[in-house]
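Sequence and fold:
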Amino acid sequence: MSAMMYERLWQALLDTVLMVSTSALIALVAGIPLAVFLVLAAPEGLIKAPYAQRTLAAVINGFRATPFIVLLVALLPLTRLITGTTIGVWAAVVPLSISATPFFARIAEVSLREVDGGLIEAAQAIGCKRWHIVRHVLLPEALPGIVGGFTITVVSMIGASAMAGAVGAGGLGDMAIRYGYQRFDTTVMAAVIVVLIALVCVVQLGGDAVVRHLKAR
């Protein structure tokens, strides 16, 4: 590849990191409260609001069941309303965030449900309020699983960001389609694949290291 193509590859990598990291932060901030509510509002939970819990679960399942490429196209009007455009890195953040949040919420919910019920009962016995139980029992005990689930979410978002390149979202996927596929440049396509694999490996190894550290504490 030429020096110009290497420069474009580097810029595409930066664009992918920007869109994935921004979307991942939104999914993290929105997904954990959703997961906590799904657990607390369950029939056996601390709040016991089964109708609201089932309604939210149905909405989450609906978004999870929708393929990302379909969701990407369906959200184009919302994307244009929020960002003012339907192409580019920031336009990709909207569908990526909306797609990743329900996925991560379900994974975090599973981790929260696996917390030993005896710990919650002990906290209730000494008079802890619901917020204190969530803050000092549920979240700390489920943290390794939540981090592991967040790592899986980020890895899936890297793949989705490459798919978003099909509609001009920028990043590595856009470069692979424009230069690798449309111009039949197998060198560029191979370079993008290698960079994507390396990016996934870095995220997965980093997430695994954090999980091991949390479990060792």
Summary: The longest helix spans residues 3-40. The chain has a mean pLDDT of 87.
